[in-house]
Amino acid sequence: MVCFLGADEALITVNSTINGSATLPSGSPYTSPSKVQWSIDNKVIAYYEKPDYLEIVDRFQLNKGNGFLEVKQLQMADTGIYTVEVSHDKDKKTAKVKLMIYEKANTPKLELLSNISGPGFCNLSVRCTTLNGLWVVSLCELTRANRVCRVTARNDSTNSALLLVTATKDAINCSSSNPASTSSAPLLPVTRVCQALVPGEE
């Protein structure tokens, strides 16, 4: 996501997970900058000047060609707004990159709560839960022509994890996601819980 703050400054958001890596774009149009400086909280963490002068903090790697900064072995403390200044001769561009670090999404569990079925249809109530106590309950209405799941109750949060229950022709799926990662429970086959339907028949 990119938000423009001014004529020469943009805010770019990058999402990643703990212990992973992230590449922070410089937003620079220059393919061979003469000078690149990255900083956070007024502390310089990477500085490059042609032809080969480079100062950089551990866990960071600078691409001298485009000014991109790679951060490795990410920790929550790396969250913040980074400022990059890229110069090419007398021209200079400035951008801000917001780095957000998340825990990896927990693998959720999908359980069947109730099953009301009849000729050519099944109405299934299912619950999708995570190890940290988040859950969502959905009613999945299955017919030969349609597979629809709608939420009936939930206590998840877009700030930590968003739970989603969906139905395809063959199965019901439960997934847990945040802006940086997604994890899914094992699929629940339609034929296991709804004998009234045969996948693929219209």
Q: How would a textbook summarize the main sheet?
A: 7 strands, mixed
Order of secondary-structure elements = EEEEEEEEEEEEEEEEEEH
* Portion of residues within helices: under 10%
Quick check: average pLDDT?
Answer: 89
Instruction: Give me the Rg, rounded.
Output: 24 Å
Strand content: over 45%
Number of helices, counting only DSSP H or I runs of 4 residues or more? 1
Shape: elongated
Would you count the extended β strands for me?
A: 18
State the strand order across the main sheet. Answer: 1-2-10-9-4-5-6
Category by helix and strand content? mainly beta
Pfam families: V-set
GO cellular component, one term: membrane
Organism: Synaphobranchus kaupii (Kaup's arrowtooth eel)
Subcellular location: Membrane
Overview in brief:
Its main location: membrane. The protein has about 200 residues and is mainly β.
How would you describe this protein?
A hairpin with a 5-residue loop joins strand 12 and strand 13. The longest helix is centred in the C-terminal third of the chain and has 4 residues. The N terminus is likely disordered. The strands form 4 sheets. This protein has a 7-stranded mixed beta sheet, with no helix packed on it. It starts with a strand and ends in a 9-residue tail after the last helix. The protein is elongated. It contains 1 helix and 18 strands. It has 202 residues and is mainly beta. The chain is 2% helix and 56% strand. It is found in: Membrane. Keywords: Glycoprotein, Membrane, Signal. It comes from Synaphobranchus kaupii (Kaup's arrowtooth eel). InterPro entries: CD2/SLAM_rcpt (IPR015631), Ig-like_dom_sf (IPR036179), Ig-like_fold (IPR013783), Ig_V-set (IPR013106). This is Immunoglobulin V-set domain-containing protein.
